[in-house]
């Protein structure tokens, strides 16, 4: 919502002049006060008679808080509390994020002030703002929140602390603790919000799976290859998949024990995989029903490496394209479809030729589309098992393939997979198959 409509809402709620409210609101927002909090404090200033946002909101069970609540008073146990720095309206601000639980439920919170929250403590937050995030209510603890520590500890069904396995992590998770091996790690210079800065990026693994990471303040324990224990990491989406973020506020320590990395990717139905919104490492099996345009022999911009049409890059204009091979193919398993993207190596495999062969074929035919046609003939209609990184966005679901193999269409394999899925002891039945 724009400032204007916030001001209008407030003015009509409070029965005061809109311009006056808007000027006050603008002032507070310029001082980096979150909008909900700014509205709360104006409600108090102008003496709100209504219940929403009044200075003494009623006590609520966490399970009953809804995004429609203006502000609430709640009591709960701090499950996690992780500091991180964000840029809010032009300024760096340290916030604390985590989860709060009582007997009825659990809720995410953001604390804009340093209340000294730590896991295991029971608190009462008076006049905590409620905002909506992804359809769920979240608590905002700010200047207008009165926070007190309660001696009597609540007994909750949730685990205190943020210990998690990689496979459980989801975009939006905060204050998580993980124990991982560092599978890949490289130091890179990026153009950050404060100029050039060095970061580490790579892939973590644990017993449950693998996830990419960014370490914003390079930790030697990670660069040395681990294994490491990381406390207070957060998960953010990057290029459509969840990524572990290790910040300057995270604690990284070398682990004594080894961390085994699960070698198998989870095999999922396409429909289920797409509904997760993105998975770093997943395996799907389906029929390859079409090879899309933009496959086969293509040209990329030498600057940005994006695919170009007729020598024109959308960003860099007229460029000398670099020849490359790729395939974008649609895989369908009856539950959904994804576009599987094959890089140059995998494309050479399915084309059964090199880039030079493709250029030669295109020269002879005086048409580069013949390369895509050849690939089409070879792969459409066959069943493939593909493993890679699934990202889902407004344009659809893409699976960047790491491996692709024609699915052994062998009844024994299928029967075994079927039995495993239903919990039968595959080993015991193997003789019969
Ligand atoms: Zn370009």
TrEMBL record:
Leader sequence segment: none
InterPro entries per record: NA-bd_OB-fold (IPR012340), SOSS-B (IPR051231)
CDD domains in the record: SoSSB_OBF
Gene3D superfamilies: Nucleic acid-binding proteins
Record keywords: DNA-binding
Molecular function in Gene Ontology: DNA binding
UniProt KW DNA-binding keyword: yes
Lineage: superkingdom: Archaea
Residue segments, region Disordered: 40-68
Listed GO biological process terms: double-strand break repair via homologous recombination; response to ionizing radiation
Protein name, per record: Single-stranded DNA binding protein
């Amino acid at each position: 919502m724009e400032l204007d409509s916030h001001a209008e809402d407030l003015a009509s709620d409070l029965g005061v002049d809109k311009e006056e409210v808007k000027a006050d609101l603008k002032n507070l927002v310029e001082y980096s006060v979150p909008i909900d909090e700014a509205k709360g404090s104006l409600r108090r200033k102008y003496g709100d008679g209504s219940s929403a946002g009044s200075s003494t909101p009623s006590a609520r069970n966490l399970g009953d808080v809804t995004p429609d609540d203006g502000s609430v008073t709640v009591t709960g146990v701090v499950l996690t509390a992780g500091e991180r720095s964000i840029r809010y309206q032009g300024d760096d601000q340290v916030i604390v994020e985590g989860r709060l639980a009582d007997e009825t439920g659990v809720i995410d919170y953001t604390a804009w002030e340093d209340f000294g929250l730590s896991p295991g403590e029971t608190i009462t937050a008076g006049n905590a703002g409620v905002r909506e995030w992804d359809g769920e209510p979240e608590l905002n603890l700010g200047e207008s929140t009165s926070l007190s520590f309660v001696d009597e500890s609540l007994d909750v069904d949730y685990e205190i602390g943020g210990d998690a396995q990689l496979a459980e992590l989801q975009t939006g998770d905060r204050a998580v603790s993980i124990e991982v091996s560092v599978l890949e790690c490289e130091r890179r210079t990026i153009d950050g919000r404060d100029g050039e800065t060095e970061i580490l990026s790579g892939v973590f693994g644990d017993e449950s799976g693998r996830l990419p990471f960014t370490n914003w303040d390079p930790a030697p324990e990670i660069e040395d290859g681990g294994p490491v224990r990381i406390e207070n990491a957060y998960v953010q989406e990057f290029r459509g998949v969840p990524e572990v973020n290790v910040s300057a506020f995270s604690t990284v320590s070398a682990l004594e024990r080894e961390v085994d990395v699960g070698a198998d990717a989870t095999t999922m139905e396409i429909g289920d995989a797409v509904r997760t919104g993105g998975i770093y490492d997943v395996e799907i099996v389906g029929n390859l029903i079409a090879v899309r345009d933009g496959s086969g022999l293509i040209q990329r911009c030498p600057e940005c490496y994006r695919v170009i049409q007729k020598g024109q890059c959308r960003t860099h204009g007229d460029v000398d394209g670099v020849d490359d091979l790729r395939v974008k193919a649609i895989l369908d398993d009856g539950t959904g479809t994804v576009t599987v993207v094959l890089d140059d190596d995998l494309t050479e495999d399915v084309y059964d030729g090199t880039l030079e062969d493709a250029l030669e074929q295109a020269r002879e035919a005086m048409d580069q589309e013949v390369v895509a046609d050849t690939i089409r003939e070879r792969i459409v209609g066959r069943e493939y098992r593909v493993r890679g990184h699934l990202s889902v966005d407004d344009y659809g679901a893409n699976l960047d393939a790491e491996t692709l193999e024609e699915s052994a269409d062998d009844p024994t394999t299928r029967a075994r997979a079927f039995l495993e899925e239903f919990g039968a002891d595959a080993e015991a039945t193997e003789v019969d198959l």
